Amino acid sequence: MALLRQEVEPAEAGLDPKALDRLDQHFAHYVDEGRLPGFLVAVSRGGRVAHLTTHGHGDLAAGRPVAPDTLWRIYSMTKPVTAVAALLLVEEGKLSLDDPVGRHLPAFAEPRVYVEGSGTDVRTRPAAGPLLIRHLMTHTAGLTFAFYHCHPVDALYREANLESAVLPGSDLARTVDVYASLPLQFDPGTQWNYSVASNVLGRVIEVVSGRPLDEFLAERVFGPLGMTDAGFRVTDAQADRLAELYGETDEGGIAPIPGLPLRNGRPRFLSGSGGLAASAHDIHRFMELLRRRGELDGTRLLAPETVDLMTSNHLPDGADLRSFGSRPAHDEPNNDGVGFGLGVSVVIDPSRTRAPAGLGTYGWSGVATTTFWIDPTRDLTVQFMTQVRPKTSHTMFTDLKRLVHEAVTD
User: Fold this and answer.
1) How many Cβ atoms are within 10 Å of 32's Cβ, its own excluded?
2) Kind of pairing between the strands at 362-366 and 121-126
3) Which residues are CB-neighbours of 229 under 8 A, at least 6 positions away?
4) pLDDT digits (tens, 9 = 90+) for 289-330
5) According to DSSP H, which parts of 242-359 are helical?
6) Strand ranges (DSSP E) for 308-406?
7) How many C-beta atoms surround the C-beta of residue 115 within 10 A?
8) Angle between helices 78-91 and 280-291 (to 10 degrees)
């Protein structure tokens, strides 16, 4: 186990201590109101942690406070990790962004697109082109989530028992085959729709590497980076550090809800989309890999150009998510001025974003109100960790970005 620690005084890192106090007080108010159980926030400049606050509880019933070593379900913050793992295989020449997914997963060899109908009376047509690895990494594959209620294909996912993105009792391979049996919402590469694509990418990694996803990540990502707690399961020795998961109630409070079954040994379904738990130290190490363009403490995982590719906008003609997407992203409710790279969102026009952000800022969030971002223009990295699944959209991430940027003095 390794702990995240403050390494430098805020003023020395170009941060205003009073503004950081306002940030802490703002989120402490959420705790006092019973809208958050507790939180951890860390702000770093130049890779050095200049502000680290823990407040409230990781488990209210047990009275266990949030601590630097608390473990968090990071849900969709798993996706950038899966993207990095896939890029390792790209650099080794075992995978290409332009490989048809069907080359590695034959069930996707002849994708079809929804035309009309419902239930057993659905009409489809052949996709205009192949589904590519880059489409999985940019969420332009035409896949979806069952919990959306916006398109007839969403309903087909529910009818296939994919309400939680996994076929009950099945592993990753079987579940991905079920995805492949369903029609796409649109031709690959023609729209952006946040989806189960990272689960498919995780299965591609397994097939290409010949290793289960958890073993590949542990050996090729977590070990080299010193991400000592990250994984798809929580051991008995770690169990007391895992934060409880809460959901918003109709009355505006929070109550415990079921979360990922992390304590039950190795999961049958290894979700490259949202299956990881991690500590703040783990997230800091991952951010540092990206901030340093693929190298950390003398260990190079990716070439600088590969990280630059990952963190550049891949939507056609420089489009943003609002103009190209059919579904809102976690961390940018309006999606104005925000594009998408390989597993991360990317700010392409700061003047149009809802919250302050430097050009090229990239990162992602999770459904339990966790987020991270890296701002290359300010050499700034930020993470915020809690465990609340909201019922509706909220302004916490917008407030966090505003308050952090108010603290930057140079």
Assistant:
1) 12
2) unpaired
3) 1, 2, 69, 71, 238, 241, 277, 278, 279, 281, 282
4) 999 999 999 999 999 999 999 999 999 999 999 888 755 544
5) 280-291, 304-310, 321-324
6) 338-340, 345-347, 362-366, 370-375, 380-385, 388-389
7) 11
8) 40
CA distances from 278 to 57, 68, 88, 321, 410 (A): 17, 11, 21, 28, 31
The pTM of this model reads: 0.96
Burial of residue 163 (CB within 10 Å: 0-12, 13-18, 19+) is middle
Structure tokens at 388: 């609340």
Distance from chain centroid for Cα 350? 21
DSSP letter for each residue of 138-176: HT-SS---TT--SSHHHHHHHHTT-TTSS-TT--HHHHH
Which residue type is seen at 311? Answer: T
Per-residue tokens: 366: 């999770």
Round to whole Å and give the CA distance between 222 and 228: 7
- CA-CA-CA-CA dihedral for 28, 32, 37, 43, to nearest 10: 0
Q: What are phi and psi of 355, to 5 degrees?
A: -125, 155
How does pLDDT run across 168-198, given as a tens digit for each residue?
999 999 999 999 999 999 999 999 999 999 9
Find tokens 């420089």 and name the residue.
318
In angstroms, rounded to a whole number, what is the distance separating the alpha carbons of residues 54 and 320? 34
DSSP H/E element including 341: none
